[in-house]
DNA sequence: CTATTCTCGAACCAATCGGTTCGATCCCTC
DNA sequence: GAGGGATCGAACCGATTGGTTCGAGAATAG
């Protein structure tokens, strides 16, 4: 019934090389092989999941939102869970790309950290990303692999990125950090202090203001530089006891 | 959902205006007034919700687990949501009590902080508490009040407790902190760095070992003392720009 | 004892769930 | 134009959902 789904008449068919092995089929794409239709389904699913969460969303809702018949969905995906997993995959990639795109600058150490922190906090406390995290956390009991992959592609890569940066700063003599991995953990949590968990639990209904974020990040960087700043920190002085 | 209006057929109508003030009913308890039965229902509901999450749990499951008929449940609670909210109320209280019970000591500053941190991290990254948090976060979109109250009674009170402690330490001259509220935020997030989010996302399937927790907490306290420790920190040197 | 009343347990409700099937139809390729 | 394959759309499936009703039976109070 004249949906917009047949946007691409017939081009774009061999866009995706048929997975990773040779696709022998000479004509057509084979059932469930049209990447445009796949994207269309995923986009509808994304909207529905974001609006209603995983359990409350029904396949019929997705059908309606995507403008695709239920039978077709089940040709492309083997059920709601697989659809959700595929969606997470896409989502993570784009989320991380957003962050990467936002930090390509050659700032000096302190400013670079602040800039990175502001981007990070702004992104992962934004409404859509918080909603996505709530959904993933909510199903983490039933689908731990999904949750774990989400963490690995998201927060873990963010921390790895931060560790790289810290390593560079240490090498350049701008920082003096005995354990950059630990430091990356600490700093990224400091960035989020007082914002992230409130947001997750819906105890902070609105997105945090840019001022709040900036104030938080600067406080974190200050604390961080006092501890790990150039000179002034002798490592051997570990805990008493 | 949304049909609570015709709940009472005609009997038991004066059961609930007893509320928290004097219940005038001289004999019997009135429908839905037996605290033991209420407790029994809540206990069954707790087990079911913990095992299956909010959406996946059905009232029939709770019926079965609690050993109570469905009709009775609907006498005590107006549906699954209300049952869940009541459950959260109980749960928060007991969780916080656990933490309080674990920190009544007169240790010196640094050791006291470590002890507090270990108790805190151990508690809120434990399997049952993590599961509870996942469930609450998962429904935070649909029931933001529940999530917000959970946060206020949990993390927020924990941070308030920590702030109190820091205030005492500052007064005693053991610490030099310009903003103890911010510092409490920072320290409590530092305690959890590298553990909490992994656990939430199921990226760390097992409860963290006591060694890991202790190592993390000590690192946090070290960092904290370097920044806020006695002397050696001149406050006026705030951030540039 | 009788009268009261709370709970049980099962039947019942309409709605919806995820998932399957199948003929009609559309579009592409030849 | 003809043939073939992918998609549509709707009916259909059994199971289950949150929620209601009601009579039988247990327990208590007078």
UniProtKB/TrEMBL annotation, chains A, B:
Residues 58-77 bind DNA. InterPro entries: DNA-bd_HTH_TetR-type_CS, Homeodomain-like_sf, HTH-type_TetR-like_transc_reg, HTH_TetR, TetR_C_Proteobacteria. The keyword Amino-acid biosynthesis does not apply. Pfam families: TetR_C_7, TetR_N. The keyword Iron-sulfur does not apply. Keywords: DNA-binding, Transcription, Transcription regulation. GO terms for molecular function: DNA-binding transcription factor activity; transcription cis-regulatory region binding. Residues 35-95 form the HTH tetR-type domain. Gene3D superfamilies: Homeodomain-like (1.10.10.60), Tetracycline Repressor, domain 2 (1.10.357.10). This is TetR family transcriptional regulator. It comes from Phyllobacterium phragmitis. The lineage of its organism: Bacteria, Pseudomonadati, Pseudomonadota, Alphaproteobacteria, Hyphomicrobiales.
